[in-house]
């Protein structure tokens, strides 16, 4: 049994009287790319800082590589952190920024030079080593921040929303670069973001957090196909899943025994609706259409006045005010009980 | 934009607007009011003692021409004599008694003439009395005073920067119990007038045995509340994430202070350095009570001591004053750029 590289056990954190993290348990295997995702204020950055050692948990234990590190200082935990604002030393050159950590532990100049140049080569920073951070673009600064982390050869890489300060196009390319970096270095990376697209595209394992609680831990596929509750179901996947309360289902035929007992909410993703070939199905009045090229995002109301979004094929454009009859793709409906928890169903 | 076009900017395009005229008038008046005395001081410091007493006073240092005449040991002053019936000619004066002067023609020194003093005017030339400055170092221990002032100013400024920045760092970047109380305590000492603590300070310095020592002037005032406040406010703008990143980079707290916070505080340090230099260089009261032996005097004390009870040697005094003014002016001119760029960049950050 491999020792997990990071283990959180019943970790809690309160600031003064406000509890921010409530009893979090987590295990991370070596080499995994774990993403902590959740809405603003859910405590993901706080959790990351506690792993890094910059904050101490009010209760619970943190184990890194089989060793309890609650009292170990941030520098000695073998972690390297990439901050959201990069936190580069503005008065030092790129080379000095990357070399600073190694100088502090007393490495020889030759060793430092070798390691810095190696990291610079991986991140394509060779030509920028003499520049100051203020002379670099956002993407370059971020790579310097990553380079500063790589140079220390840590057991754990910690990323605190590193892509949120970049423009959309750069974000997409940097996501690919980070994936490539992970594949190349093979090290464990813990990544915090509020963007579920980043989480889905980059993670081996996603941890969904809400208000200091872990809602679900799983692979992107698991979270997409088997969300544990309505929060995860609504958070993961874009456009957002439609939730239809049981009380407003159109007629008795829909409320068949297909659905598990206790179902209060039906969840169907916009991409899992089809136009019904017959007149049987969910009737919808179209209120707006967004033409996306190969698809169209149709928003409208069901007969029960519930608003839903549907992603249809873009070949036959739909008009506003049109009446559509829809059916759910088999196997793609999710049932949730009164508390929003997932109910297993074998279904339609 | 070059300096000339900046100085000659006007509001009107081709003709001068009336506001231009008023503005420049106002500026010129201000310029002369502020710089007039300084320039006068500078020029007068080059006058000989005799030239200083001239009435009406002249701006440029003129002194009377002298000429070597055969048969006389010392050089004789030259006057332009305007005798009736003759064209003005230069004559050298041998002596003067009352309103009659005994004069000789430098070319024919044997012939003496009696000339009433109203008929003669001194012939003057532009002469810079460099001797005023040279004598300071030769005849008086001016070099010693200069050294004392420089030593006190430089060492005190360095110590002030060091200790104030350490205090400010602790107060701005560390969370500890009583943090606010300590800060308020330091600031509240600003309310204490210096004259109240003058005697206690003297007693303490005496008790420690630092009387009549330059360190007795340097050490008591190294920790300044103004400096702590200024640096703390500036250090608060340094993002905490930088320090956290440094801590994760294995930096000790001292390294964080020395290699990260201090370099980033350079603009505020420059401001404090200027304040400290200007204050220490011009400081009179503390050196006065601490130093009583003249070999430890600073320039300010020396200037004060130089004014005798009955008689003041103005030419030496003025020369000393000019030398006293120079270093502070240079330091200010050099560091001023840091202040303005520092304030501007701190705002943009």
Which percent bin holds the helix content of chain A? 10-25%
CATH topology of the largest domain in chain B: MetI-like fold
> What is the radius of gyration of chain A?
24 Å
Strand content of chain B: 5-15%
Q: Which CATH class of the largest domain in chain B?
A: Mainly Alpha
Question: What does this entry look like structurally?
Answer:
The complex is a heterodimer of chains A (348) and B (349). By secondary structure, chain A is α+β, with helices and mostly antiparallel strands. Chain A has two domains: 6-230, P-loop containing nucleotide triphosphate hydrolases (Rossmann fold, 3-Layer(aba) Sandwich), CATH 3.40.50; 240-343, OB fold (Dihydrolipoamide Acetyltransferase, E2P). Chain A contains eight helices and 19 strands. Chain A has helices at residues 44-52, 94-104, 109-122, 138-151, 168-185, 196-202, 220-225, 230-235, and strands at 6-15, 18-28, 33-37, 59-64, 67-68, 79-82, 156-160, 188-193, 205-210, 213-218, 242-245, 265-268, 273-275, 282-291, 295-302, 307-313, 323-328, 333-336, 342-343. In chain A, strands 6-7-8-3-9-10 form a six-stranded mixed beta sheet, with helices on both faces. Chain A has a five-stranded antiparallel beta sheet with strand order 13-17-14-15-16, with no helix packed on it. In chain A, strands 2-1-4-5 form a four-stranded antiparallel beta sheet, covered by helices on one side. In chain A, strand 14 (282-291) and strand 15 (295-302) form a beta hairpin. The two termini of chain A are 40 Å apart. The mean pLDDT of chain A is 89. Chain B is an alpha+beta fold and 349 residues long. Chain B folds into three domains: 3-44; 66-122, SH3 type barrels (Roll), CATH 2.30.30; 140-348, MetI-like fold (Orthogonal Bundle), CATH 1.10.3720.10. Chain B contains 15 helices and eight strands. Chain B has helices spanning 3-7, 18-44, 49-52, 131-138, 142-173, 179-188, 194-208, 214-218, 225-235, 240-248, 253-264, 266-282, 285-290, 299-306, 314-348; strands at 62-64, 66-67, 76-81, 89-97, 100-104, 112-116, 120-122, 124-126.
């Amino acid at each position: 049994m491999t020792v997990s590289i990071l283990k959180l056990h019943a970790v809690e954190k309160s600031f003064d009287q406000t509890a921010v993290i409530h009893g979090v348990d987590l295990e991370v295997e070596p080499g995994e790319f774990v993403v902590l995702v959740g809405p603003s204020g859910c405590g993901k950055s706080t959790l990351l800082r506690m792993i890094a050692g910059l904050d101490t948990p009010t209760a619970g234990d943190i184990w890194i590589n089989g060793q309890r590190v609650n009292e170990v200082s941030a520098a000695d935990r073998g972690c390297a952190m990439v901050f959201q604002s990069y936190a580069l030393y503005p008065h030092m050159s790129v080379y000095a920024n990357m070399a600073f950590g190694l100088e502090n532990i007393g490495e020889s100049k030759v060793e430092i030079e070798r390691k810095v140049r190696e990291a610079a080569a991986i991140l394509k920073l060779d030509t920028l080593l003499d520049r100051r951070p203020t002379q670099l673009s956002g993407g370059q600064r971020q790579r310097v921040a990553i380079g500063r982390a790589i140079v220390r050869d840590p057991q754990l890489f910690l990323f605190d929303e590193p892509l949120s300060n970049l423009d959309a196009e750069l974000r997409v390319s940097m996501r690919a670069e980070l994936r490539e970096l992970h594949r190349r270095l093979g090290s464990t990376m813990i990544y915090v973001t509020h963007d579920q697209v980043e989480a889905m595209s980059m993670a081996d394992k996603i941890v969904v957090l809400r208000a200091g609680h872990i809602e679900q831990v799983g692979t992107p596929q698991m979270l997409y196909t088997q969300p544990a509750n309505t929060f995860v179901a609504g958070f993961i996947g874009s456009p957002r899943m439609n939730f239809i309360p049981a009380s407003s289902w159109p007629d008795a035929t829909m409320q068949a025994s297909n659905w598990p007992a206790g179902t209060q909410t039906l969840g169907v993703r916009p991409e899992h609706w089809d136009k019904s070939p017959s007149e049987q199905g969910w009737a919808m009045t179209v209120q707006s259409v967004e033409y996306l090229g190969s698809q169209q995002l149709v928003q409208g109301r069901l007969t029960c006045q519930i608003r839903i979004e549907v992603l249809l094929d873009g070949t036959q454009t739909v008009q506003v005010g049109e009446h559509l009859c829809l059916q759910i793709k088999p196997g793609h409906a999710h049932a949730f009980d009164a508390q929003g928890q997932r109910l297993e169903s074998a279904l339609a | 934009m070059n300096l000339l076009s900046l100085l000659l900017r006007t509001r009107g395009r081709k003709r001068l607007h009336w506001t231009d005229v008023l503005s420049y008038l106002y500026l010129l008046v201000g310029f002369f009011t502020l710089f007039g005395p300084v320039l006068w001081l500078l020029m007068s410091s080059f006058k000989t003692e005799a030239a200083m007493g001239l009435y009406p006073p002249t701006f440029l240092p003129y002194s009377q021409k002298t000429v070597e005449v055969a048969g006389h040991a010392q050089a004789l002053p030259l006057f332009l004599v305007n005798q009736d019936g003759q064209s003005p000619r230069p004559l050298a004066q041998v002596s003067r008694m009352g309103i009659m002067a005994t004069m000789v023609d430098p070319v024919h020194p044997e012939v003496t003439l009696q000339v009433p003093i109203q008929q003669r005017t001194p012939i003057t030339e532009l002469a810079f009395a460099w001797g005023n400055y040279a004598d300071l170092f030769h005849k008086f221990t001016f070099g010693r005073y200069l050294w004392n002032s420089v030593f006190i100013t430089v060492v005190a400024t360095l110590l002030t920067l060091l200790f104030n920045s350490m205090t400010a760092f602790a107060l701005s970047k560390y969370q500890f119990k009583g943090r606010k109380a300590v800060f308020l305590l330091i600031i509240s000492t600003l309310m204490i007038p210096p004259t109240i603590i003058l005697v206690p300070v003297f007693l303490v310095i005496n008790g420690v045995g630092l009387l009549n020592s330059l360190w007795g002037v340097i050490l008591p005032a190294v920790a300044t509340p103004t400096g702590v406040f200024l640096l703390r406010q500036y250090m608060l703008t340094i993002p905490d994430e930088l320090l956290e990143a440094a801590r994760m980079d294995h930096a000790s707290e001292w390294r964080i202070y020395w290699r990260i916070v201090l370099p980033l505080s350079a603009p505020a340090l420059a401001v404090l350095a200027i304040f400290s230099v200007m204050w220490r260089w011009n400081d009179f009261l503390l050196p006065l009570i601490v130093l009583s032996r003249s070999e430890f005097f600073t320039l300010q004390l020396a200037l004060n001591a130089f004014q005798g009870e009955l008689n003041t040697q103005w030419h030496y005094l003025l020369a000393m004053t000019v030398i006293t003014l120079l270093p502070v002016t240079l330091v200010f001119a050099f560091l001023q750029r840091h202040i303005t760029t520092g304030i501007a960049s701190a705002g943009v950050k």
